[in-house]
Amino acid sequence: MDIPSIKLLALTPAHWPQMRAIYGERFDSGNSTFQTEAPAWEEWDWGHLAHSRLVAVAADHPGPGPVLGWAALTPRSARGVYAGVAEVSLYVAGAARGRGVARQLLDALVAESEAYGVWTLLASIFPENTTSLSIYAGAGFREVGRCERIGQLHGVWRDIVLLERRSAKVGLPATTA
Asked: CA nearest 70: which of 86, 43, 48, 37?
């Protein structure tokens, strides 16, 4: 695996055109998302947490460089009890896949989310997407279930595998002295 030297930057609205293109690439695969078109920036921005938004760019590229991948979090629920639970969105450009970008983004997203008090990260992945399942497992996620025929994509019922990663730093039970 060719692991490129990347810079991780805070995701900004200026990154959206490249992010949207990367997101759109995954629609063609049929194994990454139930979405069939990328939303407008405002809709995407509203649906994701304001923190823990990252883009990966090539470290050796002059200037900000092209976006190789991106990661962000969606809140699990608006209810206060779930304030530390979020779902991961992570996408890598076709030209950068298989080179370690996803794992670097995921590791950084875990650290960033913990800095903001997130104690549980969730992921919903199509079972056919074995590469993503492997990447998440390597980052400490574990399978907690499978939802059968949870939704349709192009008229075909699809399953998802549910994964979670519980922080070893945030949300720990209080210790008694």
From this structure: 48
Tens digit of pLDDT for each residue in 54-68? 999 988 876 667 899
* Mean pLDDT calculated for residue range 4-11: 86
Beta-carbon contacts of residue 150 (< 8 Å; ≥ 6 apart): 158, 159, 160
Residues in contact with 23: Cβ distance below 8 Å, sequence separation at least 6, in sequence order = 33, 35, 38, 91
Taking the C-alpha atoms of residue 118 and residue 43, their distance in angstroms, rounded to an integer, is 23
Mean pLDDT of all residues in the chain? 88
Dihedral sign for Cα 89, 93, 96, 97, please. Answer: positive
How many CB atoms are located within 10 Å of the residue 28 CB?
9
What is each CA distance from 92 to 51, 113, 139, 161, 174, in whole angstroms?
A: 19, 19, 16, 20, 38
Q: What pTM value is reported for the model?
A: 0.87
